[in-house]
Amino acid sequence: MLEFLKRPMVVTADINLHVVALTGVGLLSRLWHLTYPRAVVFDELYYGQYISFYMKRIFFVDDSGPPFGHMLLALGGYLGGFDGNFLWNRIGAEYTSNVPVWSLRLLPALAGALSVPMAYQIVSELQYSHCAAMGAALLVLIENALITQSRLMLLESPLIFFNLLAVLSYLKFFNSQKHSPFSLPWWFWLTLTGVACACAVGVKYMGVFTYLLVLGVAAVHAWQLIGDQTLSNVCAGVRLGGRGLSWGARGAETQVCVFCHLLSRAVALLVIPVVMYLLFFYVHLTLLYRSGPHDQIMSSPFQASLEGGLARITQGQPLEVAFGSQVTLRNVFGKPLPCWLHSHQNAYPMIYENGRGSSHQQQVTCYPFKDVNNWWIVKDPGRHELVVSNPPKPVRHGDVVQLVHGMTTRFLNTHDVAAPLSPHAQEISCYVDYNISMPAQNLWRLDIVNRESDRDSWKTILSEVRFVHVNTSAVLKLSGAHLPDWGFRQLEVVGERLARGHHESMLWNVEEHRYGKGQEQRERELELHAPTRADISRNLSFMARFSELQWRMLTLRTEDTEHKYSSTPLDWLTLDTNIAYWLHPRTSAQIHLVGNVVIWTSASLATAAYVLLFLWYLLRRRRRACDLPEDAWLRWLLAGGLCAGGWALNFLPFFLTEKTLFLYHYLPALTFQVLLLPIVLQHVGDHLCRSQLQRSLFSALVVAWYSSACRTSYTLRPLTYGDRSLSPGDLQALRWRESWDILIRK
Predict the structure, then answer these.
(1) CA distances (Å), 455 to each of 382, 399, 446, in order?
(2) Residue 260: its pLDDT value, please?
(3) DSSP state of 357
(4) Which residues, 6+ apart, have CB-to-CB distance to 305 below 8 Å?
(5) Residue 499 has what pLDDT?
(6) Could you give the CA distance from residue 336 to residue 559 in angstroms, rounded to a whole number?
């Protein structure tokens, strides 16, 4: 039993020294003087605010992407002991001593460094030569824009890392499929593919392009697997130990085997990414439990689930709204601004600017601020009292109510008069009796949209309700239009007569709520000014919070303004743009996001060459002229599908987007192009150069080209690291294109 103790234990390991060396130089290029400059550089201003929110556990919403990337940056701050106390107010602001700059920039730098050996491994897994793999890695190593972006507190570098990890993991899985399916390495690489895809999407929504790329390639391979006739023979041998088998039984066994392959891929590439995506939000919402500046765009239930803010105001409010309750009504839609149903003593003007007349009744609006004039009393039409009875009589779905404005005691009303800015809809007002032939029409039927049964009670915060006018069937709705100065620029509320469906602009929920006890108006006014108190807590489930937050992130539209350094996708191809990231306050040292012109131009030409060669070979094969051996053709297809396909999926969608774009949006697509470049060069040398002389001349040209790329990288180094002061003449010499904005002090 103890025989193994008598023998020496030997562990053998295969270490690729090229991968080790590439990792070392990658770390050196990305980590060298990482704390310089010790100042806010470009979008560090943007991401730094969110890191501070994480450190202080303050909730925020960022529509640029899911929270995983932000959490990675915050992890660096946490490991460095950052307390979140720094004012992120301007680019170039010096970091204070409590900001761990090295730690905050570490994870993006590590991601950039590890992308170098991964480029080598991807080309190797595509079955191309060691020289091609080294070429891809060295191009990633010296590309100036990739170096700059990975040395700062930004998310493009982690995104590229997970993109490459997803592709590398899938290639390793695909190659292990050939000789050891369902082995431990096979499962490891398949699972890691799904994990990497989830992380790429979790860093930025752009990661979904690479996820779709991997799913597309995996779907093609799965389709080929279904038609693989050798699969049935292997399965039959394993199951029956080589005994005879009828054709029908063998067919059944094939289905089981193929089903296992498809099921494993579905779990790894579909289920695992979804679970991990949910996990990112679960951690995000668990960490950020305090109220913050972005609460207002969330619903009242969501706000009430956060510590402080609305939760502090509404904690323990009565759950069920009763006749006599005092409530504030928040519009669920919240666009263009979150607002509350509001009224004040001012009346609508007798004649509008366009000549139309109004009812001259008291104005009703939607007001985007907390105010005592937002309070309303839910009145039972059959009772005169404006207090809650004992015991309270809850308001239920389908009940008819009257809404009394708390401060003016006038009833919410509508009638056949056009709204001021929406003439197709009815005016909403608080009724003033002018002793004319316009009787009050102030009865509203309560419609609880998210009810579970037709006898559900109206619940504080949780219920989303419509108010349907009994006389005209108009629905109380936020139009979103800003009233003129006579309406104090508040938002228009109308009665929509042709209401179809349950659009959120017609939905309202009770945010603040108390049981009214004051019999006299003076007593009620004192109650309305007093803070609310009660005893019922309400916590949303994780899935409810996730669904709302995800929807807000996808539909939130920030105002995109033209930026000095914004650019178009066509500018990226020709490198006609750059971004000035940072300028030293006293010297001319500066950091720019600018690409290596030789690499960018060559990568674009290589992509065009691949497409042309692919079409040529395809036409030739259609005519039964196979210029490439079958294994070389399959390698060429897979390399193009992943590299050229990765470039197209990460680049072409930007032609359809309306948001402001910058040069760094092209970096994920550029990385795939860089991987394709040495593959095309090897293909030309192996298959298009017919003689040894041609191959020798081509190799010499490749060496000269790579030397020029290295020379260009070194020349642009002062703009990449920003560690050297340059004279006006030096800066002018670095302005290789007229469109480049190189900052020259006068």
Answers:
(1) 20, 10, 11
(2) 87
(3) B
(4) 311, 538, 539, 540, 545
(5) 62
(6) 12
d(CA 525, CA 523): 5
Q: What is the model's pLDDT at position 518?
A: 65
Residue 296, strand partner residues: none
pLDDT at residue 4, rounded to an integer: 54
> HSE-up of 102 (CA within 13 Å, CB side)?
7
- Report the C-alpha gap between 730 and 34 in whole angstroms: 24
Token duo for residue 525: 């006014």
* Burial classification of residue 402, based on how many CB atoms lie within 10 Å of its CB (0-12 exposed, 13-18 middle, 19 or more buried): buried
* H or E element, residue 212: helix 207-226
725-731, long-range: CB < 8 A, 24+ apart: 725/584, 725/587, 725/588, 725/589, 726/588, 726/589, 726/590, 727/588, 728/588, 731/588
Q: Tell me, letter by letter, the H, E, C secondary structure of 369-391.
A: CCCHHHEEEEECCCCCCCCCCCC
Q: How confident is the model at residue 169 (pLDDT cuts 50, 70, 90)?
A: very high
Asked if pLDDT for residue 80 goes beyond 90, the answer is yes
Tell me the pLDDT tens digit for each residue of 483-532: 999 999 999 999 998 666 677 889 999 988 888 776 666 666 666 655 44
Phi, psi of 349 (to 5 degrees): -60, 150
With CA atoms as reference, report the closest residue to 461 among 321, 324, 574, 357: 321
Q: Which two tokens stand for residue 396?
A: 């239920």
